[in-house]
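Practice problem 4.
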């Protein structure tokens, strides 16, 4: 580990020297590129320098143990004990910082939420989840755009698909894929009985054209007339678009825009994201099946979380964490849960390292 850290520190120093050159500063594109590289190394290099500083202090204090002054010896003992408590935690942090970065972490995402079992109540829960993620996006200063939605008469969603853009969106939301279960008393329930329903969430890294190459010959494009929740016509032209990727059978529909061209562009964005997800899952499987854990695997079949409204709690079953702050959670205060999931994923990676 330490030889790798020495190498990273050397690279960091070289980048600092390069950035200080006038010819680099005047080349904005080159300067930006090197500055990004420097920033990506700063956290691990700072932690390593802190480790080296503590190690030096430890050795210096060990030498003071042979001092004839009892007060100095006592002070050195206290310092040694303090440093020995700090070093293991710092070394664990360095291990985490050296873990391979997920190349998709910087990506924007396509968020897909679908009502599952539970009828109208499931559709209302899907809408609640969408509001929850929308509020989290607001907290993070991200931008959210609805790409496709299928509403119910009760105000819920059979399905809603949105694009979210911002800083490291995928890194924050990649653990949200899976089945989310709700336990609560529906407004229409006269007996006060608790009902259980579910919705599925899929978080797909947004794919650029360079990420996924699609042969136009592999696509079937159908156009049709858009309609609303109750079947009423939204417009009188064939502006809605359904694109089917023939090799995989993936079909994507979009009818939110009045322009067929815009609907096609949105549908292609979703299709590319789904194809990239398939490619990534195949790549990860091929690289190392053992490294795949339930957390972050994107497995939609497993129940990952339960939202219990009568008890005001939300429980994540992958890490056995329960938070008794459901109201705040539904308002988009997701950081505590997501950070715990990320820490668990790091711990699992360290076991495999």
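Answer key:
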């Amino acid at each position: 580990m330490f030889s790798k850290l020495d190498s990273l520190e050397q690279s960091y120093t070289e980048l600092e020297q390069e950035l200080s050159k006038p010819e680099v500063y005047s080349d904005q594109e080159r300067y930006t590129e090197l500055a990004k590289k420097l920033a990506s190394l700063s956290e691990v290099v700072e932690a390593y320098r802190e480790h080296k500083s503590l190690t030096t202090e430890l050795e210096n204090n060990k030498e003071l143990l042979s001092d004839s002054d009892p007060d100095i010896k006592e002070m050195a003992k206290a310092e040694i004990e303090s440093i020995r408590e700090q070093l293991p935690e710092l070394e664990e942090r360095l291990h985490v910082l050296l873990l391979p970065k997920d190349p998709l972490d910087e990506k924007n995402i396509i968020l897909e939420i679908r009502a599952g079992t539970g009828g109208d109540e499931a559709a209302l829960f899907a809408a609640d989840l969408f509001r929850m993620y929308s509020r989290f996006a607001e907290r993070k200063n991200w931008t959210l755009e609805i790409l496709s939605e299928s509403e119910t008469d009760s105000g819920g969603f059979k399905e809603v698909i949105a694009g979210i853009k911002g800083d490291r969106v995928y890194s924050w939301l990649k653990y949200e894929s899976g089945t989310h279960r709700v336990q609560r008393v529906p407004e229409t329930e006269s007996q006060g009985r608790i009902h259980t329903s579910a919705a599925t969430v899929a978080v797909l890294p947004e794919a650029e054209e360079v990420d996924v190459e699609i042969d136009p010959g592999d696509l079937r494009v159908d156009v049709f007339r858009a309609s609303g929740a109750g079947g009423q016509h939204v417009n009188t032209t064939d502006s809605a678009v359904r694109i089917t990727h023939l090799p995989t059978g993936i079909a994507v529909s979009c009818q939110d825009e009045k322009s067929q061209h815009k609907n096609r562009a949105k549908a292609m964005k979703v299709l590319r994201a789904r194809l990239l997800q398939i490619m990534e899952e195949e790549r990860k499987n091929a690289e190392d099946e053992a490294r795949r854990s339930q957390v972050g695997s994107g497995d939609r079949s497993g129940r990952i979380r339960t939202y219990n409204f009568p008890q005001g709690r939300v429980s994540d079953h992958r890490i056995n964490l329960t938070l008794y702050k459901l109201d705040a959670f539904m308002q988009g205060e997701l950081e505590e849960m997501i950070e715990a999931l990320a820490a668990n994923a790091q711990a699992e990676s360290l076991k495999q390292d």
